[in-house]
Amino acid sequence: MAIQISLLVYKGIPVDFSKYRHTALHALYPDGKYDWLHVAGAHPFFKFQRDPENPMSESPIAWIPVCTAPDSVTKAKIILACASTSVRNSNSDRDWNCQNWVGEALTELVKIGCLTKEQRGAAIGKMVETILEAELEDDGVY
User: 121: closest CA among 4, 1, 7?
Assistant: First the structure.
């Protein structure tokens, strides 16, 4: 069995608005073990995390299959690509979040041959659709 990569979307906390929906990558390895690869925290304290089990109290609302990695792409290469993906905590990156990180991490996985640009695009498209299904924010305009 080859490594399976999926993209996970969780309901937003404290309210289920699009900007609060958490996203992560999930890697299932041939030995049956797995990793949740994501950034946790909030601006300016985001940090990369690799968790061996679901780091959230709830199950994901969407489990989006991304790819089956070629045999040449190892667990170590996937973890390194994700751990090397930039985490943006500067003042100019206030709108950056885990959703951006997932897109950037998928780009890094394309670079190592884990998936194609087309697979990345399809996964991000499904992620965006799921994020946009969140409740609409009340902007106070009537």
Answer: 7
